[in-house]
Structures are given as structure tokens and as C-alpha cells.
Write the C-alpha cells for this entry.
Amino acid sequence: MYVLNVNDCSFLNYLSQTLKTNTMENASEYVGKFETYLEKFTDALITWAPRVLLAIVLLVVGIIIINRLVRLMRRIMTARNIDPSLVPFLAGLVNILLKVMLIISVIDIIGVKTTSFIAVLGAAGLAVGLALQGSLANFAGGVIIMIFKPYKVGDYVKAQGEAGTVKAIQIFNTVLTSPDNVRIILPNGAMASGTITNYSVEETRRMDLVYGISYDDDLEKAKNILREMAEADARIFSDPAPFIAVKELADSSVNLVVRIWCKKEDYWNIHFDWQNDVKLRFDKENLTFPFPQQDVTLHQAGS
């Protein structure tokens, strides 16, 4: 059986005092560290709280303003008869771009450096732009065409060396149908930056018809016949009045020009009817249409 002696009691007292001393020192150290952390937290809170609060307010107000701007944009595009398929696409694109700019501004207000982030976005945008250069040009051209409407579906246009009736204006291409019913697809980038001749915009058109008569024919008689025909055709306007004059003294004919005005939908019917009617009328009035001739003389060699 173990018996506690005097020396053991002294050792226990020493151990007890040591533990009490260490405990008090550790407690004081912990309290000091806590006070230090609390002071740092308070300083950080005082420093960052206004920035965070301002960033939250800016984010909320910015989102409200952006949503209102997008709705206003939708109404304006709808009022201007922008293609319905383009309205949600453009509105969504503007919405995303504005919100990305808002988020970058909010992050910058908080104090986070956005230089690297913006550089990464710029590099990514440049890479995508170079990869999709042609497609982006066609997309931008489609947007310009749909907004400014140099032509619309149903118009007869000539562009990029092709002519036809516009059947569809797509986001990247314009589809034409030629008079012989051939489908022609033209990129909108070239259409927006090139020359476009639109034959359907104006309600009236002027037609120039040229007819040649022989130098031996009666000039005034030919002019009077053409004038009578123009006045008798109800499809031809009397104001502006038909204009008939000598256009050219050619090598083998005297060329007369007939300038008449009509509705755009009557243009081709008048054109083809007059080719037929003028030929019949000139034949009836003994007026000739000169055409190239060649005389060949044969000489027989002596035996």
C-alpha cells in the first residue's frame, strides 16, 4: 500500500501553483488575442461597410434601371416595326451587356481590382470576334437592314450583281427570288455596305423606250404615231406628259426616245405591250426598222 509522505505534499502544492499560474497566463494571452481580432474586425467593418452598402444599393438600383431601359427598347423597336424575331434577341443582348458592366462597377466600388478581369474579357472578346469575323459582319448587317429598312419583303431589288424579289430577311442573309424562280442568298454584311437598287420603293416609275426608223422615213409622222399611242394608253400618265424626241442619229437609223410615266406595277406590262404594238403600227404605216445588212459582190475570174 502506497503511503503519502511530506515530500509528496510539497510536490502537489508546487504542481497546483504552476497550473494556476499557466492557466492565468494563457487566459490573459487569449483575451489579448481576442481583443486584437475584435479591434481588427471593427476597423474592417468601419472601412468596408459603407462600400458594401453602396455596392448593394448600386446593384439594386442599376438592375431596376436596366430592366426599364430594356422594356423601353422593346417598345421602341416594336413601334418601328422591327422584325419580331430580332426584338427579343437585341433586348437580351443589351440586357446582358449592361448587367455585366454593372457587376464590374459594383466589384470595383467594393475595392476588388477589376483590371485583370477586364483584360481577360477583352482578350476573350477579341478572340471570339476574330474567329467569327464574317458571321459578326453579317449579323451587324442584318441588324442595320432590319432597323433602317433599305428594302423589305416583297420589294424587287438589285444588289451584288443579282436582282430579284425579296422573300426573306434573315439575321445573317437576305433571300431573293429571281424572275425565273431561282433562289439567291446574299450575305447581309455585303448588302448593308454595298449599293442596293430598290425598284419597289416609289409608287411611280419612268420608262425609256427607244425605236429606230430609217433615214428615208417621215420623222414627224413617226413621232406623232408614238404620241398618239401614249395618249391612248390609259396606263400611261398624262402628267408628267409623255416626252418624245430624237435621241440619236445612228449609223443606219434615226433613234427616237419615248419617256413615259406609269405605276410601278404596270411597268413591265407596258414595256412588253409596246414592243408588240409599235412593231404592228409601224408596219401598218409603212415605217421601217433598219437592221444591219451586208452586200456581197462576187467577181468571176477569167478563164
Residues 115 and 290 are 80 Å apart (CA to CA). The helical segments are 6-79, 86-110, 115-131, 133-148, 188-193, 219-232, 267-284.
